[in-house]
Amino acid sequence: MRPLVLHLDIDAFFASVEQLRNPRLAGRPVAVGSGVIASCSYEAREHGLQAGMPLGKALRQCPPLVIVRGHESIYRCYAARLFEICHNWSPVVEEHLDEAYCDLAGTERIYPDPRQEVARLRDEIHSSTGLTVTAGLGRNRMFARLIGKLHKPDGLGYIEPEQEESLLLQLPIESIPGVGPRTATVLSNLGIEKVEQLRELSRSALSGLLGRNGEILYERCRGEDHRLIGGREIPRSIQRGTSFDEDISCPRTLDAMIEYLAERIASNLRQRGLEAGGLALQLVHGDHRRDRRRVALAPPTALDPPIIKTALELRRAMEGRRTAIRFVGIHLDRIRLAATVEQGDLFTATTEDPADTDLQQQQRWKRLLGQVDRIRMRHGHGALLRGSALALQDGRDRGGTALERDRHGLILRTSCLTR
């Protein structure tokens, strides 16, 4: 059975959807986001614009830029339709925000010419959604994604096993999955810029330098990627944050926003069946100074109360500066699958035992939040909000400036479109 993986990547996803919804935007530079660019069209990228760039800088660099706030629920519908088509075409599909992996191993009789069949799949996606996708075919998921990137936008790439070596040796180390900015900086300080140079390091050297990630890079720089398609993806971290239309100096307003963001991020953990072992709070002041602090969550949790309590304690510990706040964000790390069973006590604890009381309180919160999550799944997150979030909506403690609300919750200035 010949291994074969297909990688599909939607071209300029958010911006392409907005151009489809408004034909007047076709052919014009478009950026989706609020505060920073979440996605931009290829017309905007010709001016040097990219995701993560502040919108103010983007407008100075590209004056004819059209900025759209973004409609996350609409983008989800487009992605769901694309994934539905992929499931009808491939036996195993792994879904992400704007991309999908399909395992085509064992489909030789059904698809004798994979490139021709993928071309038909791309045509079906375009006729059904109006979106263009870039496709890459390779022996494993790493090569499928690499060859697809070389054929963006709206292209189809296929790499034979005998072509893999020449492709790898000419790539920069940042192209290898697992090499982020921090890892790239560490390797760059050693004079390693290309994959060919990375191969000169032994497995033990990379392991001592980068830990477990070094052992993985040792294999990937040699073309080996053993990640299964359709496996459960566990993110390394999850974050939620927003900037304010006006800098905030009221502690109660800041605490209310922290509670709302903590509630959203905890709800996301429970939906994925995950829990976090670390929490960091980031504040950006009006003078652009950043303040970030992190603590461990013991034990790891996905419940609202401990996450909210920890975030608020961090905020109070960061009260040294008396400048207004422009941005607040919560970052969870040490993500793992939530335990399906809990270790019981060998001996029966008394009702006065504090540990037993805490355990009972956690069980009550799990039952309550389970019901809350079911209501929100059916009617939207905005169907149930904490009292502090309602105060943000009403504009109390905000000088009369209220936040709008829809069925998905409060409409923040910096929405989490890319999360």
List keywords for this structure.
14 strands; 21% strand; 419 residues; 15 helices; DNA polymerase, domain 1; globular; single chain; alpha+beta
User: What is the averaged pLDDT score?
Assistant: 86
Q: Give the class-level CATH name of one domain.
A: Alpha Beta
| Percent in strands | 15-25%
Number of helices: 15
Q: Strand order, biggest sheet? A: 5-6-1-7-8
Helical content (DSSP H or I, runs of 4+) = 40-55%
Number of beta strands: 14
Largest sheet: 5 strands, mixed
Helical/strand content category: alpha+beta
Order of helices and strands: EHEEHHEHEEHEHEHHHHHEHEEHEHHEE
Q: Per CATH, which architecture of one domain? A: 2-Layer Sandwich
**Uncertain segments of ≥5 residues (pLDDT<50)?**
none
CATH superfamily of one domain: DNA polymerase, Y-family, little finger domain
Give the C-alpha Rg.
24 Å
CATH fold-level topology of one domain: Dna Ligase, domain 1
State the end-to-end distance. 36 Å
Explain briefly what this protein structure is.
The chain is α+β, with helices and mostly antiparallel strands and 419 residues long. The chain has helices at residues 13-21, 42-45, 55-61, 72-89, 114-129, 141-149, 164-169, 181-189, 195-198, 203-210, 212-220, 251-272, 304-317, 354-379, 387-394, and strands at 5-10, 30-34, 36-40, 66-68, 92-95, 99-103, 133-138, 156-158, 237-248, 274-285, 290-301, 325-337, 405-406, 409-410.
Task: Describe the structure in your own words.
By secondary structure, the protein is α+β, with helices and mostly antiparallel strands. Among the domains are: 165-220, DNA polymerase, domain 1 (Orthogonal Bundle), CATH 1.10.150.20; 237-344 and 354-410, DNA polymerase, Y-family, little finger domain (Dna Ligase, domain 1, 2-Layer Sandwich), CATH 3.30.1490.100. Helices cover 40% and strands 21% of the residues. It contains 15 helices and 14 strands. The chain has helices spanning 13-21, 42-45, 55-61, 72-89, 114-129, 141-149, 164-169, 181-189, 195-198, 203-210, 212-220, 251-272, 304-317, 354-379, 387-394; strands spanning 5-10, 30-34, 36-40, 66-68, 92-95, 99-103, 133-138, 156-158, 237-248, 274-285, 290-301, 325-337, 405-406, 409-410. The strands form four sheets. It has a five-stranded mixed β-sheet with strand order 5-6-1-7-8. Strands 9-12-10-11 form a four-stranded antiparallel β-sheet, with helices on one face. Strands 3-2-4 form a three-stranded mixed β-sheet, sandwiched between helices. Helix 10 (203-210) packs across helix 11 (212-220) and helix 12 runs antiparallel to helix 13. The longest helix is centred in the C-terminal third of the chain and has 26 residues, at 354-379. The protein is globular and about 60 Å long. The mean pLDDT is 86.
